[in-house]
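Pinned message: reference record for Low molecular weight antigen MTB12-like C-terminal domain-containing protein
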Amino acid sequence: MHRHLPVLLTAATAVVAVGLAGCSHTEPKVPASATSSVVPPASTPVVVTAPPTAPLPVPEALTDVLNRLADPNIPGANKVGLVEGATPESAATFDKFINALRDNGYLPMTFGADNIAWSDKNPSNVMASIRVSTAQPNHAFTFPMEFTPFQGGWQLSRRTAEMLLALGNSPASTTPPVLTPPPPAPPPARCAAPAGRQLGGMRRRRVAPPPA
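Predicted structure (tokens):
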């Protein structure tokens, strides 16, 4: 939990340093006699938000959100609370998401969560490496997802939800291409026998001698 604090301090220091460097190029030069009588402004302290002191969620708390989101037996109206910023009008989008998963042969889907940690950008959120397995053979993948607290539980962040919706709309190549076999080769043409052989095979007729 405390390992993110030095990162935030370093980032804040870098921002302040860049801001001071930018100001040094734009401010006009003031004579030394004038600067000696000017009181320097008080420096503004840098406020760094520490990660929450609450324990990190267990993997099942995060995968349960995904399992319910990908469950075709749960209507879209009951999935509004699973995604950050979703409204009742989003129910139709969730139903289309499930239909796309079913049509592409992804269902059922299973999820696993690893490397759960507090988010560096939103300290109240958590990041996790989610393992996704689908019904497609050899079609499993892993990518980071973000979750935000909601009513004592967790819901999928809006940014991650858009990634999943894009996944559901991507077509899957489930049918292999059909190869049409070439037509059979015509039988070889039978060669006609030479004239000599035909005559040789015929019976010779006896020619009667002419009358005397």
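Pinned by admin. Summary line: Strands lie at 110-118, 126-133, 140-150, 153-156.
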